[in-house]
Design a protein that fits this description.
The protein is α/β, with parallel strands linked by helices. The chain has nine helices and six strands. It has helices at 3-11, 19-22, 80-83, 88-92, 97-105, 118-131, 144-154, 166-172, 183-200; strands at 31-38, 48-57, 60-70, 112-115, 140-143, 217-219. The longest helix has 18 residues, at 183-200. It comes from Paraglaciecola hydrolytica.
């Protein structure tokens, strides 16, 4: 009995995964990697300053799907100009949030959404989409940070919290360094990381539900 079946027998398969995805094989599943740049790590007050996403399937990135938008917000930028390079002038020339989230919502059920540290981005998305009356129900997400922790624990590797940041995770898989703290660059790096992780776990011949035991899938 291989480790997939041992894990499934011990932990069970998540009943929460939507039927649409449960029996699909990973190589057939479109992934949409999303990244938000925020004014704060406190999700109760954080405002989106930029959003980026890109899709791919079976290890291939669809560059034509790449999307990036700076968002006009009146919220205090705090350290955003230092961290993300987005100044008040950039933000003032940005676009409204609603059209970007409406466009994103069109891919709610056609893709599994991928984040690095999903709780941060999904809490902000959930709040803002609710305020804008944009449905988010039924979204299935894959968290590459959570998946990397699983992979490292499985290898009995000792790691720190800092070693699972996106840049360090990508470095472990041999990816060249990408510009940090740009929403589209981070989304593309997250998608690459997801493909590398799924390949390392040899999940492409397996069903989506087979990854439930890794605790990296979440339904909203």
């Amino acid at each position: 009995m291989n480790w997939w079946h041992k894990s499934k027998k011990f932990l069970g398969v998540s009943a929460g995964i939507p039927e649409k995805w449960k029996n699909q094989h990973w190589q057939d599943v479109p992934l949409l990697a999303i990244d938000l740049e925020l004014t704060s790590l406190d999700t109760s007050v954080a405002a989106i300053t930029s959003i980026g996403w890109v899709s791919g399937i079976n290890g291939q990135t669809d560059l034509t799907s790449a999307f990036y938008q700076v968002i006009n917000t009146a919220e205090d930028l705090q350290q955003s100009p230092v961290i993300h390079g987005l100044t008040a002038e950039h933000i003032a020339q940005g676009d409204a949030l609603a059209p970007a989230l409406q466009k994103l919502a069109t891919m709610l059920h056609s893709h599994i959404w991928v984040f690095h540290h999903a709780p941060l981005d999904t809490q902000v998305l959930s709040r803002d989409m609710r305020l804008l009356d944009i449905p988010l129900d039924g979204m299935l997400s894959l968290d590459t940070l959570c998946l990397e922790k699983y992979i490292l624990n499985r290898a009995q590797a000792v790691f720190s919290r800092d070693s699972v940041v996106l840049s360090d995770c990508c470095r472990r898989y041999g990816f060249p360094p990408a510009p940090a703290h740009n929403a589209l660059d981070d989304a593309m790096a997250t998608l690459q990381l997801a493909f590398a992780q799924l390949n390392a776990l040899k999940v492409f011949p397996h069903k989506v539900s087979d990854l439930s035991h890794c605790r990296s899938l979440q339904v909203y």
